[in-house]
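Hi Y.,

Following your request, here is the sequence exactly as I used it, all 208 residues.
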Amino acid sequence: RVGGSFRISRSDIAAIRRAAGTGRDIVIFLNVLTMIDHPTGVRIVRRLAVEFSDRRVILQTKGAGHLAETSRHFIAAATDGLYNVLASTAGLAELLLNAAVVFSDPSTVVMESISLGMPTFCIDVIEGHRKCLYRRWPGLCVTSPDEAAVAAGEVISGTKPYPFNSFSELTNMTSRTVFDEIREGFCLPPLTAAGAQSRPVEASARAD
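Below is the corresponding structure, written out as tokens. Let me know if you'd prefer a different format.
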């Protein structure tokens, strides 16, 4: 009952959707930025930590990425002298349960977090990255420490509601889970929260 590389279960999805927006942490999922030890990535982390010094800024690197020398240097630079910046190896579900706002370098985590009801922004600072899917949606990407601080501040203060409906073409914004989407593709009925099968998918709604 675990699907996707981010290893999240049906019960995790339900818990995150119930808790979405109620946490206090600023969670930053990183992969490429740490692997290449990107200086603007470091500055964004530190700016968020200083701007929101009453909140934890959690850094999570994908897989064993935190063990790479460049990643260790990135994390050391990002956390130096800042008590509220913490490196974590916890999974996506655990971190989202306590998140107020999420940042990620270009990754499927951006759309995954949005679909789970989490205000999320893509850190788009990699030189030479000529094409990034997320640039198609205004306001979804941040390109500097200032932009990241403003984006987080608007979410946390509530001065600018996060535009979830704007991303309906990017990711699934319905209450259905990825598991039931896959089941329908195989002409199987969705499961209820308790795991029992609901009514069969009508033949007319089945995939060819």
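The longest strand covers residues 25-30.

Thanks again,
Q.
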